[in-house]
Design a protein that fits this description.
alpha+beta; Aminopeptidase; 2 domains; five-stranded antiparallel beta sheet; 6 helices; globular
């Protein structure tokens, strides 16, 4: 099944012929945005192709294309669950590696990719959580800059005005952050206090079910 996002990007299930495109997207994500250093693009493509060829049945990829070019991807990783008396062959799935090129984000492509992966999970009869506690650790632009200004592995902040870049990123992502079940302001909390607060919220959630 093909899905269409807001900017007419086509979402389809990827096949072996798409290995190079998927490897390129993964390499761009991890190196350009995460600052990872490792294999060259060509070497990574070869290693990635070998890795996926051995996992075609357990790792299903969906790819987004715009103007014939690959612009995003999302994966469904399927794994066996521990059997129980009423169901010996249980499986579960994780949505993994959802990525869209930066210049095409916030235009519906990521959502369409996730919808396609969830539809694949349902078609396969794979179980997945209907609810989980999603926690967003929030901080002000000033506090974020204070924490990351001496780090060198954040390419998105290699900008003439990094604090302005942080504000722009927070504004673009705000609608998604607000969908979290719990938002934790980390400006005035220590890591220990943040962890205690998250554990407390988890216990409240668990006791209410």
């Amino acid at each position: 099944m093909h899905h269409t996002a807001q900017i007419a990007a086509t979402i389809r299930r990827a096949g072996a012929a798409d290995s190079a495109a998927l490897a390129q997207l993964r390499w761009l994500w991890r190196t350009s945005e995460r600052g990872e250093v490792g294999l060259t693009p060509a070497a990574f493509e070869a290693a990635f192709t070998d890795w996926w060829s051995a996992r075609q049945s357990s790792h299903v990829a969906y790819i987004a294309e715009h103007g014939g070019d690959p612009v995003g991807m999302a994966w469904l990783a399927v794994f066996d669950r521990i059997p129980q008396p009423r169901d010996l062959g249980r499986q579960a799935g994780n949505v993994q590696s959802v990525f869209v090129l930066e210049e095409l984000r916030n235009q519906g492509i990521g959502s369409a990719l996730v919808e396609a992966v969830i539809a694949e999970a349902r078609t396969r009869g794979v179980g997945y959580k209907t609810h989980a506690l999603v926690v967003c650790l929030w901080a002000s632009p000033e506090k974020i800059w204070e924490r990351v200004k001496n780090q060198t592995h954040r390419p998105l902040l290699h900008d003439p005005d990094p604090q302005k870049k942080i504000r722009e990123l927070l504004a673009a992502r705000e609608q998604f952050y607000k969908q979290a079940d719990v938002l934790v302001n980390t400006d005035i909390r220590s890591p220990r206090e943040v962890a205690q607060h998250v554990v407390h919220q988890f216990r409240l959630e668990a006791s209410g079910r």
